[in-house]
Fold:
Amino acid sequence: MLTPMPKPMPAPRPSPSSTDSTTRRSCYGVLVTTLTAACTLALTTTPGTTTAAAREAPSETAADRALRAFLDHGPKAAVLTAAHRGQWRKAPENSLPAIEAAFADGAEIVEVDIQLTKDGVPVLMHDETLERTTNGTGRVADITYAELRALRLRVGLGGRQAALTEHHVPTLADAMKAARTRGLVNLDQAWREREAVMGVLKQTGTVRNGLFKSRAAVPEVRAFRTRHPDALYMHLVDDDNAGSVKEFGDAAPPAFEVVFDDVKDAVADAAFLKGVRGTGRVWINSMRDEFAARHTDEASLIDPARGWGRLIDTYQATVIQTDNVEELKTYLAKGPVNQVPPGAVRVQGEAYAPGEEGVAYHDTDPGNRGDGPGRPGDGVDICDHDGAVVVCWMRGTEWLTYTVDVPRTGDYTLRARVSSPYSPAGTYRVAFDRGPASGPVRVVNTTAHHAFALQGSGVTRRLNSGRHTLRLSLDDKVPQNWNLDYLQWEPVRR
Ligand SMILES: [Ca+2]
Ligand SMILES: [Ca+2]
Ligand SMILES: [Ca+2]
Structure:
């Protein structure tokens, strides 16, 4: 891949001072100096000025570009993508392949979580306990790294019924080495052990890759940044500590992670965000409802104006942390795109045909057991998973009917966007116009109720253009516990 020629860098700032008020400046000074050295070398490859050192100098790496971008908070600063726990849709969360996949998919930043083993080795793991993401039991802090190394990671977001992989819990050192030339690493749950973590960054030559964060008292943060003026740091603010932004004064960190569960929160106020945006980057999380007042990934997948677009335009986000790296990158590059493939028909699970129990649907218990917008009086269970409105509490013998308008006669194959933390998760069959039902389609464990995935079915049907009735039924006497976001009939290309 071609590497664009870096832009000239600003001159290094004056040498670091140890006073608190110049912490930010000295931090930038060291970082910019490091970058400038690399960029100067790259720039001197112009014919006629080439030096021996320049001929051996590596071109600017993706990590160089990510750092330069992260420190740019000017009005034209590009929105950066942070991959939550790595690209867990392709590899176990907090694993080396998840880090590599996140960078390969275009994330400039990968968020990871740090725990310490009994013998003091910083490792990547979100939980304090081993059960969810590995085949081990107990606490990380109670076993040695050698013992931890023998365990295997589960796929995706894990869970007791998720399949085991061949991958192991990585050390922070391994993770940082994997990121060294590729991007930044947001070090979550690392503040308590920040000195041990900083030691790893120094040993691995990745101080410039690591991004610390905390919501600690400002004097505690100042002390750390004075001790380590080259450490990258981001401060978390919500309504409880919004005053910390002012308290930093001239020594504002290069980013603030802003968390608001309500649009009326003080930190969601335009003037407050403008102030933050003026000194650094605004980092907003779109994974769950409560991080940014329901402006979530799932809402964005339906309409970016309900999520990422709003976070950028109204809440001035310049970093978005996501569980949907590829979709966010596509949105940032191309704007809203029609996500239904050309010629395909998407039928929302919750948009079943109108009618009564026994006519339009069958549900095993009365009323809506979910928290989503069910139809008044209907038994169908509808949930809202962070913006994904789905049929939930799906059980054997239940069925739903749909109206499907087929645009063009042809062969169509079915995929369904589903979720389930269980193995087995369940099976369904589909039938058109009172015709014979398909064979059973197995729903595959997606590792969490909120982890939706578009799964193939193996079912292909010849459909004439026009309106059809589709019936989706759940087999009896097999475990059923999954969620249906939508069905999608895609034209078969021959
Ligand atoms: Ca029900
Ligand atoms: Ca049900
Ligand atoms: Ca849906």
Notes: Residues 348-350, 389-390, 485-486 surround calcium ion (ligand 3) (CB under 6 Å). The CA atoms of residues 401 and 471 lie 4 Å apart. The two ends are 32 Å apart (CA to CA). The longest strand covers residues 453-463.
